[in-house]
Amino acid sequence: MRQSRRWTERHPHPQHHPQKKCPFRRIVPVPRGTILRNGHFGGGNEDGSASLEFITAGMLLLLPLVYLVLVMSAVQAGALAVEGAARQAARVFVQGETVAAATAQAERAIQFALADYGIDAADATVRVSCAPAECLTRLGTVTVDVGVSVALPLVPPGLTVDVPLAIPLEATATQQVSRFWSGR
Fold this sequence. Notes:
- By secondary structure, the protein is α+β, with helices and mostly antiparallel strands.
- It contains three helices and three strands.
- The protein has helices spanning 7-10, 49-94, 99-116, and strands at residues 125-130, 141-151, 166-176.
- The relative contact order is 0.12.
């Protein structure tokens, strides 16, 4: 008599022979709270709990991280806007023909620099000071200070708490008037 070479023919599946039990599938009840050999507690049904824990922990860690990125990008944009506005205003001011024209050009430069970053120029504080008492003198220096307050993103304006809801930013730029300036 010839023996079969296929393993499935020599060892039939228990579903085909209900009278035989599979020796590999022995289910042993474990009392609740018992520590098994692999270090896990037995007795509890934890099917699907890993995905739930991952989603919960992910949201608890991801949402503050996303808000931190939003706050840091708003602060960075405000810092770049204030620094660019101060620098451009000082550069434009020292090239003006008169103090009135230089002041108007500096205000326009500040408006454009702040508008590029979405900050209203009406909220900015601007201070112009000159090293000799009179502005636009040869080899004199002009210092422009620009300051704004950057609001925290996603915070309603009506919220009143003891914590500041805006971050104040200030930048200073100094330029020297050309030695060839001739107050035309």
